[in-house]
User: Fold these one by one.
Assistant:
Number 1:
Amino acid sequence: CVTLDVQAACRDTTVTQELLKEGFHRDLLVKVELGEHAAGCAVAAQVRLPPGIYVDPYEVATLQQQNLTKAVLFPDVIDVEAPEYLARDLFLLLFLEPDARCSRCFRAAVPVHARYHRPAEGTGEALVVLESPEVLLCCCHSHLSAECWEPAEVDTPCSSDTTSPCQWHSTKHRPAHEESMLRVPVGLREHSSLVCALTLLTTGLCSGLILAAACKYGHFS
């Protein structure tokens, strides 16, 4: 009975995520409600981004300068032009801010972008699965329940503004597993011949027009 009570108390921490807006450029909103008060603690969400989606480090840096978001990327060097099949997983540590409407609630948002995918056969979209984030706490001046929290292997300070080390903790009993689906438009393989033909025709036509204009109006010595 004691074990069940402990597990029930630990499961009080909940995390939800939403992909806002439409198209290739979205906002990822993460909301956390803790099962216990975390006065003086930093609250963060560690999000694994699959190859089909990424965060622009330059955009994040600009938002941090404007104090609109706080985040750390692993790795911090990202090829934002790479297609999905040449990219790799990223890890985003998103620092959450207290929600004024709820004493145990925290939230934060960050822009995310979909990568281009290979053409598919029989479908005009690809699915990118975004797993539920991991909730992390960093309490430098208070103690967490050992039954609910355990040290996490996160090598970053409690705040993106400081360099002081601090021990992060993650929940032992993860919240209910929830996934978000991002639907990315892709080309159809059966259209490849038509696309190649139209591209070649357009290129030839434009080249001919440029050559004709150069011969008519150009001055050649």
Note: Residues 175 and 196 are 49 Å apart (CA to CA).
Number 2:
Amino acid sequence: LQSNKEDNAADPLLCIITSPPCFPPPHPPSPFRETPASSPIISATFPHPSSSSLSSTRSSRRTLSVSIATTTISSLILSFYSSALSKSAINTDFFDLPNSGGVKALDLRPGTGATPVDGDQVLSSIVVIHYYGRLAAKQGWRFDSTYDHKDGIGEPIPFVFTLGSGKVISGIEAAVRSMQVGGTRRVIIPPSQGYQNTSQEPIPPNFFDRQRLFTTIFNPTRLANGEGSTLGTLIFDIELISLRH
């Protein structure tokens, strides 16, 4: 574990792309367990206990408390250790998406539903997704998320687009094209498949986030210094919610 920590510290991008998925699980497990309602709690009252009896009872209670605390700590350590192993196990699961221009993908959760259709505008799918968008050049700065866009009752508003329309950056279209409904995929998008101009979606609705994103990607000084491959690298976690033709 120490070796993995040192390796990740040496490579900030590796830390970003191997971080846990942004989407919370439907029913996150808790390391703490309450006493089941069905488990009876038995107590008894003894009149006029002797001092030796009280001392023995207190000692038993201390021993029981220490035992429970030790068991709880051990369970937490095992839980965190298992989590670390799970994260290290996905480090090598990225693969190149065919005909994507260099987009790399990792399926965090495979889908079981339909796959989008990418044809002409009549046959193409209208795709509904949730996403977290991060910028590698800013140490994984999350510049936009559909979960931050709320409707009138506080529900997150998904992002909707037509596959093949050209309005969305190529890297997201390449990622969604081979996904199935219900799946979640993490993609590393190179600059050539990311933002080529400021009109391509998805665009952060917050003006300052939008300005920060584009002034970083299209920074003329840093581009002239040969930092283009670093500035425009994007990391998206995409969840395919639904689609229609």
Note: The helical segments are 2-10, 12-17, 51-89, 170-177, 207-217, 220-224, 228-231.
Number 3:
Amino acid sequence: RTIGDRIGEAKASGNLGNTLKILGQFDEAVVCCQRHLDISQEQGDKVGEARALYNIGNVYHAKGKHLSWNMAQDPGYLSQEAKETLQKASEYYERNLSLVKELGDRAAQGRAYGNLGNTQYLLGNFSEAIAFHKERLAIAKEFGDKAAERRAYSNLGNAHIFLGRFDISAEYYKKTLQLSRQLKDQAVEAQACYSLGNTYTLLQDYERAIEYHLKHLVIAQELGDR
């Protein structure tokens, strides 16, 4: 501020916002991120503006998750405050998405789609969540981003469960399992086995359910995860 560096002030405000978000000080975080947004718009800095919109979305997303954790409910059963907060997150992600499309930034589009999928899932809008996660998946494949691809499969599996499409969920969870093995991520592999066990229970294929729950158990024991 002293040297009149507006872009520098905008970036610093954004960094403050992100740090306050991690500290759980959501309302103060929004104020800082909004300042980042205002200055970026004033300076005609489109990249900064997109980043600020994304960061504000993240703050509302984190606040919404925090509020919904207190409820300990299934997705879609939220307090009014949690619902409004997640809807705000969604709106900012949408604004970010249209701007990064304009900028032609595919990687940023991928992140926006993933977060839109997650917010819609928490809001209980499972069909919308699926549409967003499919977009996320396509971009992850485009970039050869295996970790993002794995997350997308997992999220697609979760959303289909709530629509009662257990067979489709099982297919997505199998892809999650395959990728977690490729990535040598045992914790995620265990999680995929657990999801498959539950899905096959829902499909009333108990033999297979047992098989996957045993695999989950073995990895949990290997990792010493009580």
Note: The radius of gyration is 20 Å.
Number 4:
Amino acid sequence: VIHWYKQKEGETPERLLFFSGGKVTTESGFQANRYMVERISVQKQCVLTIKDVIPDDAATYYCAYWDPHFTVIGYYNKMFGSGTKLFVSEKGSSPPTNSEILQKKHENQITYVCLIEKFYPEIIRVTWTDDEKEVTDNVVKGDTWQSTKEDEYSIASWLTVPAENKDKKYYCKYEHEEEKVSLPTQGNAVKTAPQEDDCRTVFSRDQLMHRTAYLVYIILLLKSSMYYLTVLFFIYR
């Protein structure tokens, strides 16, 4: 049995429907004819389709099922997926106008800041990888923020690695509905900011402010780490 939940921002999740034996049972308050569920057993997938999408459909949707392999005192646990956020707008989407990696070295660590600016809508996936797999340790993903225009958003993500990895290449990958880009930490970072006639990159005031804020954040974070290590040294000593 596959369950689907709908959670609007700032509200508790509510079950939308459940799918069992090829039959969809929709909860009261929802129009049954607008939802279609298809189960693809070979690929172990369950697909929810919403017809005639309206602004009220904007929410995060979760699939879930009762897992008999994870029990607590004889009870099944309901396992939830990571969720899919649906954004509904009449405005067309636009890809980021600028994306780059900033580097900050401090003693035995290097922090890379992946800055992705001015895109719409705000839904974007940012990950770090090396040449082989996704990197999840020592990664911090910031929240999206609005630029000077209400319909433009930016985001940043940090990766901290040991200084001995300075020659190792990492990639900041982002997926927006308009494009997918992979930025390497070695070589020239990708920049797509608008240019003037003299071909110099133009950076708006809010971009510079956010750069400064993130660099300050990095410095404070590194100082906190050093303080923590110093305290541990004296404790164990």
Note: The two ends are 56 Å apart (CA to CA).
